[in-house]
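Q: For a teaching handout, I want to show students what a protein-ligand complex looks like in token form. Below are the inputs, and the small molecule is heme C. Please produce the holo structure.
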Amino acid sequence: MEDAMHASRAALLAGLMVLTSAPGGRSGDKPNYDAKMAAAGATFFKVNCASCHGVDARGDGPIASQLRFAPADLTRLSRRNGGDFPTEKVYKTIDGREGATAHGGSDMPIWGDSFRVAKNGYSEKAAKEKIDRLVEYLKSIQEPPEKP
Ligand code: HEC
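A: Here is the structure, written as tokens, with heme C included.
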């Protein structure tokens, strides 16, 4: 009896997880992401990031070979982090304004300042919105974890 209840609760939970995931956001596959934000982020990525990271984010953009450091393959962020998408680290890397993560000497630009430009002046909210969208986009393109 106890077991049956347990099983049906697990099934219910699994069902809920499927319902709340974005397309392709199955757990154990890609991290969950907001599809609408990811779509906006994709466009934004092509404009700002593809020159180095490549249109498919694999690190092979047209100017990649002229950089001192190879731009990272951004489809493998989860894989390289034991299967978990490192949201905060990615956010801070893009922002670039915080000392600890600003990788001095690398060719990855600091975006936080320019992303603050909004319709009427500067706004931190504008910067956060842009970075959040890029983060959602990057989540959406993660390669599935390696099979053990
Ligand atoms: C001028 C070239 C260039 C552009 C443009 C650029 N990047 Fe980068 N990016 C790099 C390089 C080079 C690295 C690797 C830096 C290092 O290893 O220190 C990097 C690293 C990163 C990382 C860290 C990856 C890791 O392994 O942790 C993220 C995330 C990232 N870039 C996202 C972006 C996003 C999003 C944009 C667009 C807003 C962007 N980059 C635009 C050159 C660029």
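A: Two things your students might notice: The pocket of heme C is lined by residues 48-49, 51-53, 67, 69, 71-72, 74, 90, 93-94, 103, 106-109, 111, 134 (CB under 6 Å). The CA atoms of residues 45 and 134 lie 7 Å apart.
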